[in-house]
């Protein structure tokens, strides 16, 4: 079964077919060349965030994480679409946590979720105990 992932930054899209280690064909659409970062260690993430990622059980970034995390950290507009369980929530959570200044105690990011289920998932991913900056408050309108 083929998985489809679409990543678009600003501009016209370009398609590439890539083979992953498990031989799944994944299609990527990007507006320009996007570097693939094969490991979390090579993404330039803070040490405390890396500890949290590995403590959470991640070993290797998924295809979407390999392409999107660095782009988001650079401040690029990214639209990422892929099947459930491919790491989209962790992708933007890691990116947001990397951009936070852990010395600043004021609100630095606001994440809006369309459902309570997704909001709880985001909060869970963003609350890695070894990441001191991840004080996350869940606000849900019922």
UniProtKB/TrEMBL annotation:
It catalyses: ATP + H2O = ADP + phosphate + H(+). It is an enzyme of class 3 (hydrolase). A motif (Q motif) lies at residues 38-66. The gene is LOC102736431. InterPro entries: DEAD/DEAH_box_helicase_dom, Helicase_ATP-bd, P-loop_NTPase, RNA_helicase_DEAD_Q_motif. Residues 69-142 form the Helicase ATP-binding domain. Residues 38-66 form the DEAD-box RNA helicase Q domain. Its EC number is 3.6.4.13. Gene3D superfamilies: P-loop containing nucleotide triphosphate hydrolases. This is ATP-dependent RNA helicase. RNA helicase. Keywords: ATP-binding, Helicase, Hydrolase, Nucleotide-binding, RNA-binding. The Q motif is unique to and characteristic of the DEAD box family of RNA helicases and controls ATP binding and hydrolysis. Belongs to the DEAD box helicase family. It holds the Pfam family DEAD. GO terms for molecular function: ATP binding; hydrolase activity; RNA binding; RNA helicase activity.
